[in-house]
Amino acid sequence: MEQYIKEKYEKWLKADLPQDLKEQLESLNEEQINDCFYCDLEFGTAGIRGVLGPGSNRLNIYVIRKVSKAFAEFLIQSDPKAKEDGVVISHDNRLYSREFTLESAKMLSSYGIKVYIFDDLRATPELSYAVRKLHAVGGIMITASHNPKEYNGFKVYDREGCQLTPSKIKPYIDIIKTYGSEIDTTFGEADIKGEIVTLGKEIDLDYIEQVESILLNPQLDKKGFKIVFTPQHGTSLEVAKQLFDRLGYEVIYVKEQCVHDPLFGATISPNPEDPRAYILPLEYAKKENADIIMMTDPDADRCGIAFKDSKGEWQLFTGNQTGALLINYVFAQRKLKGLLHENGVLFDSVVTSSFGQKVARSYGIEVESVLTGFKFIGDRIKHYEETKEKVFEFGYEESYGYVLAPFVRDKDSLQALMMVAEMTNYYRLQGKTLDIVYDELQQKHGYHFDKLFSIYFEGQNGKVKMDSIMSGLREHPLSEVSGVKVSYIEDYKTSKVVTPNNVLIRKLDLLSSDMIKYYFEDGSTVAIRPSGTEPKCKFYYGAVGTSSEEVNKKPDLMHQDILKILGL
After folding, report:
1. pLDDT for the residue numbered 29
2. How do strand 303-308 and strand 314-317 relate by DSSP bridges?
3. Residues 199, 225: contact at Cβ < 8 Å?
4. How is the chain split among helix, strand and coil, in percent rounded to 5?
5. Of 71, 76, 88, which is closest to residue 133 (Cα–Cα)?
6. pTM score of the predicted model
7. What was the pLDDT predicted at 458?
8. Beta strands, E only, 499-535
9. In sequence order, what are the beta bridge partners of 197?
10. CB 197 within 8 A of CB 109
């Protein structure tokens, strides 16, 4: 064990810890001690996330104090109205989420900052809305999104209800770096403590009305249209139920998953991207002869769907497929009703499918791709609100996150739920299932299939391995995969677009990020990047071809070849 790790561990051992942390700490073996203390949790794509437990590389009450203290000092230094305008804090259903919320509130209050906390758990998009509604200086969301039950996390928001972009968050992170051990974190000493205000149902109603306002055909006949819905034990249940009831939908709830269980006891996975999340909802759907399954992840910023297709079988759609369908439906209906702007813009991420872009451009809507992380979409929404150059129409990422109206500046599963329900029912009344509509879109714009593969690299050696993969790809770029040659390469770390022979084509006008994207001669792509929230490397494949049979096979073949090349 390295000396600095040993010193950190011994400091924790001597501290007056809560009994549960003390017992966990004393039970660690040398390998576990190393993993708990070899580094500090860092802010990634969406805040910090970590496994619960003792140590600087785990999430616990001391780490929460440290990052909350730094946020308080950051806000006071950067905004003269921080104390009076206050901070909104919300949380999901995870272990210690309420405790972490109260600890953050206590820390901010000790600096004289007004704090709003909800009376119970609330969804991430409602937190974003509440920050804007209350004109708060910022927000905190205690959540680990769709991660397994062992995790929790901490996300921070600005005045716009948007997660902090790199330039905004840097001074905050710099403050954290000036602190010593999380064990030594002290509270502020303001002469007047900040008021702690509890929020109730009033914000829920305002938010629900905003979600309802985006709908395009809310009065469609819903008779005979059945929805199976699950919140995956998470935060969307109460608000989603109110929305479904107000709009007159017949909804069958997966009752076992409609419990705010921090152990996620009735689901194999709470992640809408994982097919295992649909096992129990599918049982309900088949029994009830439903038309569609919809689910949200635990903090309700992501929305996943499965539906009964034209053959009477159940299909799962990816975030890219659902996104393309939503873009087509929303833009067609807005155009019909005179609501589509001539200078409209759609935002996606650099790892999102090109299919949605083609659909959007067919309606005359411009597309801007940003780095992975919805904060970059929120930031561009604000930019165009200020410059008036373009008007926001739609924003989404391949990871099942959508926003249709900018009263929220983060992914909003409630907006997506309501629009997917309306869209599916609209086509049902025309005698079409979603697979038919999607195939018609592909016949018009070309066949696409996008698939994500992830490889986990746990612990200290895992990060070294991921760094090695990325540096190896930069030193020895891929020139051909599955018999298809590479046309050019985008390296988001060097901000360069180059040929496979490293000849500069142009510069990228985006912030630096550790990602490489390959463009192939047949129009297909693959993007490779380490995750910003989990210990894994992600491989995003975008296959393009002349038939669904062709494109559906491509990602698996390409991935097998790339793994061989990388020696994985």
Report:
1. 94
2. antiparallel
3. no
4. 40, 20, 35
5. 88
6. 0.94
7. 80
8. 504-507, 516-520, 525-530
9. 116
10. no
- Quote the CA–CA distance of 368 and 98 in Å, as a whole number: 38
- CA neighbours within 13 Å on the CB side: how many for 163? 22
Q: Which two tokens stand for residue 226?
A: 């059945």
Closest alpha carbon to 59 in 128, 142, 116: 142
CA 298 to chain centre: 11
Tokens at residue 130, please?
């509440």
User: Could you tell me which residues come within 8 angstroms of residue 286 by beta carbon, excluding any fewer than 6 positions away?
Assistant: 314
Residues tagged active-site: 145
Residue 30: partners with Cβ closer than 8 Å, 6 or more residues away: 1
How far is it, in rounded angstroms, from Cα 449 to Cα 87? Answer: 42
pLDDT of residue 1: 66
Q: Which two tokens stand for residue 282?
A: 């599918």
Give which of 216, 217, 222, 251 is closest to 236, Cα–Cα: 251
| Residue 553 three-state SS | helix
DSSP 164: P
Whether the Cβ atoms of residue 260 and residue 230 lie closer than 8 Å to each other:
no
Amino acid at 476: H
Read off the tokens for 444: 């018009």
What average pLDDT values come out for the chain (568 residues) when binned by 10 residues?
89 93 94 93 84 96 97 97 98 98 98 98 98 98 94 97 94 95 96 96 97 97 98 98 98 98 97 97 98 98 98 97 98 98 97 97 98 94 97 97 98 98 98 98 96 87 88 92 95 94 92 93 94 85 92 94 92
H or E stretch covering 439:
helix 434-445
Tell me how crowded residue 76 is: count the other CB atoms within 10 A of its CB.
18
Q: How many CB atoms lie within 10 A of CB 30?
A: 11
Q: Over the Cα atoms of the chain, what is R_g? A: 24
Classified as helix, coil or strand, 317 is: strand
What was the pLDDT predicted at 209?
98
CA angle 458, 299, 207 (to 5 degrees): 155
Find out whether 504 and 498 touch, Cβ atoms under 8 Å. Answer: yes
| Distance (Å, whole) CA 450 – CA 321 | 8
